[in-house]
Amino acid sequence: MKTSDDYNELMLHPEELGVLSFKAVPKRRIEFCIGRAAAHSALSKINIKNFPILKGVHNEPLWPKGVVGAISHSGEVALAAVARKEKAAGIGLDIERIDETIPKDIIKVVCTIREAGWVNDSKDRKIERLIMVFSAKESAFKAFSPIMNQFLTYFDAELIWDEDASRFRGKLLTKVGPDYIEGYAFEVGCRRIGQYIFTFMSLPPLL
Ligand SMILES: CC(C)(COP(=O)(O)OP(=O)(O)OC[C@H]1O[C@@H](n2cnc3c(N)ncnc32)[C@H](O)[C@@H]1OP(=O)(O)O)[C@@H](O)C(=O)NCCC(=O)NCCS
Q1: End-to-end alpha-carbon separation of the chain, Å?
Q2: How far apart are CA 87 and CA 48, in angstroms?
Q3: Do the annotations mark residue 95 as ligand-binding?
Q4: Residue whose CA is closest, atom 37 of ligand 1?
Q5: Which domains does the chain show, CATH number per domain?
Q6: Atom of ligand 1 nearest to the CA of 71
Q7: 148 confidence band (pLDDT: 50, 70, 90)
Q8: Which amino acid positions bind CoA, per UniProt (predicted)?
Q9: Does residue 149 have a pLDDT over 80?
């Protein structure tokens, strides 16, 4: 994890600086920089140093060969996680600030009928629940999409909250490439940390 206090563009690999548009506004410069710093720190834990994390055609981070990972930022905080492919086929993570002012109709864009039922079932935590579902789906997107090179929409997966385990039990509603069939089950961990929702998942290695 990195925060805006760690912001220093000199920490970027020179090739990464080329990825950041010279027109980028300060907020974007900070999030890109601390996201890359978090990613370098994660890579160093698996003994990979000085690797420039460039961007693919869908804006996905391009990891070293044999490595999967994900980056997320929200305001002044950035997170990254990586794993070697022997340990995980894909990694997803996401951090979102709980913003009580988000338009409520987002629920129709993000949630299946069942998920919307769970969100609306809460008396005073509807927004928090909506952001939990949103964040978990962003994590799922980051884990599945790069490995299958297929864009996952919000209605390609459904999540059911498991309160005891603090995680969502997810199921694909559609086939995502040859390895992940409709009905494929996965889990997305979810924690509230202060005003943030943090979600994370990993896909078991492909044999
Ligand atoms: C791409 C997307 C997942 C980014 O999430 P976000 O919450 O807006 O922003 P975050 O800060 O969490 O993540 C941004 C980082 O995601 C990564 N990212 C961007 N596009 C990506 C992609 N196609 N695949 C994987 N990672 C991607 C990048 O590292 C980016 O940071 P960077 O530009 O500084 O490198 C989101 O904008 C999106 O398009 N979502 C719609 C698809 C979806 O969620 N479907 C639901 C599936 S069930």
Answers
A1: 31
A2: 16
A3: yes
A4: 138
A5: 1-87 (3.90.470.20), 102-194 (3.90.470.20)
A6: 29
A7: confident
A8: 28, 36, 72-73, 94, 138, 142, 152
A9: no
